[in-house]
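It would be a great kindness if you could assist me with a short task in structural biology. The matter concerns a single protein, recorded as an amino acid sequence and a row of backbone structure tokens. Could you please explain, in whatever detail you think fit, how the structure tokens follow from the sequence? Thank you for your consideration; the sequence and its tokens are set out here:
___
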Amino acid sequence: MKQTLQANPLSHPSLNLGSERIVKEKERQFITSISRSQAFQLERHGRFPQRIQLSGGSIGWKLSELLNWVAALPYVDLSDSQASEEI
């Protein structure tokens, strides 16, 4: 049975580590929009939140750290009227 991601990542079931919500790979990919290999590469260079070893071969990430990482990404404001005039 194929599992689908829900539109709202905050409503997706996940594990809890104390009061911190832990998300698994599929949800991490949905939240960050980057591939597994890209996330691991950025993590090795200290530019992505660290994985948490759960049980066995299972890993997860702290939801708060992922959301902070996404919020800190640079963005381009395409609504800037000056930029529109230069095009």
